[in-house]
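Model the whole thing, not chain by chain.
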Amino acid sequence: MRVPRATAAAVAACLALAVTGCGADKIETAAAAEEGGPCVVEIGTLGPLSGPAADFGLSMKGTADLAAYEVNQAGGLRVGDRTCTVTVHPYDTGYTSAGAANAAGDFVSQGIRFVIGPLGATEVTGMKPLAGRNDMLLVANGFGRDALEPKYPLVFHVAPGPSVWAGPIIAEARKRFDFQKVTVVATNDQSGSDIADVNAIRFREAGLPVTQESYQRGTQDFAPLVSRILSTSPDLVDVASSPAGDAGTMIKQLRQAGYQGAFCRLGGESTAEIARVAGGYEVLGNFFFYSMVDLDDPAMKELSARYEQFAGREATSLTLGWMPGARALLRAISAAGTTTDTKAVAEELRADPLDDASLGHGVWTGKEEFGVQQEMSFPFYAGFVQDGQMQPLVRLEVS
Amino acid sequence: MGQVVAALVGGLTLGAQYALMALGFSMIFGILRVINFAHGAFYALGGYVGYAVTGQLGMPFVVGVVVAVAVTALLGAVFEILVIERRIDDHLATIVLTLGLGLAITAALLIVFGPRAVAYHFPIEGGVAMGGAVVPYGRLVVIGIAAIAVAAVHVFLYRTQTGRGLRAMADDRATAVTQGMRPKILFPVAFGIATGIAGLTGALVTPLFALSPSIGDQVLMVSFLTVILGGLGSMSGAVLAALLIGLVESFTGIYVGGQVAPLLLFCVVLVLLVVRPTGLAGREVEHV
């Protein structure tokens, strides 16, 4: 089909006008916000909001929602001489790198510059290039080995990965459970393999022989994997960062196949979800896990009640554990006095003393592992389920 | 020996699940010439109906499975009558319509039950020791029921008047209509049976694994793969391909590992399709 030149030129002119118009509108809005129009600080948040890993993503969204709620309840966020309302813009990534990259594109198109997330290592990898090119500031969680990099100075870590806490938790667990041989299971993507590799190193450092198994994300039936695990006769299976639904199914099938040993989860905390899918705490038997917070702590109970007040459901420990990072970001925006200059906000964030009203005092780490001191580290906990009974958490410090 | 038994039973369980899904998928394509992209969502819906009836209303598991079959079959038949029927000869429209239905079902499940996996468990615990491996009773039940369901569909299609009518429609719709077959009755029946089978699979199989709203996506993908390998529209081919895929997935999963198993599975399918482009039991169609 041939298109007349005049028509083609007219269409091209219209498209050019439309594109220019879109851009102009965006710039004008940002400028108006800086000049004293209604001030809204929009925070992007992203993660798997559906599917087997939804527990993680919804927890992260919960953090952003709670941080915004706190500030708005207190009258708004003071930015320079203006008082701003904080709103949250969530995006479902499906726990994929592509999903996170799409989210970054969406945030860019909406003028969102501050992000709480992403969550998994593969998401962080997928988002960083686009976020970096657009000067987006990320307070991310991914446990990947390249989660932080000097070439991405606007990426911060909301909490440390297993390289910091796996060793102390393994040492604590050996005081309670007798295990001599470990199998670490994770998905065969970066979100799985990076964490599994670090966990395996920490188990080996503790003098334990380790085998590693991986599976494709989206697997429903873990029977082949269960057979492989049983063939190596471990007495501890670490489900690492496997999505909670997968971890629960795996544990259920391992017990059905006659596995008698212990389990652990040296990854994001999702014990309640894992137990529900597995068939209850009695199916878990002996189980230990990393937890960012102690939900029985009075400060956490108060924070949890605040969350429940507006969200209408219980807060997960992840939601509460990521709160210091979200609060620090909002403090930094306020201190920098800008809603657009992410580099200035990053400067303020690096200087933040990490004194949190709920979790106490934290320290900046990351220089040794990533080459940049942009990781917020607060005291953490080792959780234990012993003979199907949940035990009080044990508080451990960042060494 | 234990691993061989585990691989065999695991492969048969997967194969049984895939066979049931592929059977319905193939039935809809063979008779209506519609690719049902909502098939995975019907699987998830079946699981959730089973969960709601047993887990939330406290009814016996069997009742949950029966209600799941009834609900998914009814929804499928109604959707065929109200929506598909109007665009039955427009292949692109039916693809978009079924895709839309699938997304709508998944979104509805997400709203009603939430995004997290729910606690839906098989009522029979324990297993039987076979050659050094413990085979859960649930898996044996699934294999048994799948075999009965496949046999029942076969009897229905080959031994009943309605079944013969459906096969006639699949072979040559125009001639079948001139012989008195009524597509306005037969098409909803075929669609309903197929989605009912998907619902049965979901209600039966998800308690062994996990149940969340998007669980049907992966199942849809494997169903599609199965019917292509079996030969589009061939129901016996679909069952054969399902068993083959289940066994390949299980044996490679055990002996090669999860890292390479999916790759090997697709390689096997690729080679088979190169050697036999019409699939295991497909026929070549002469274009005039």
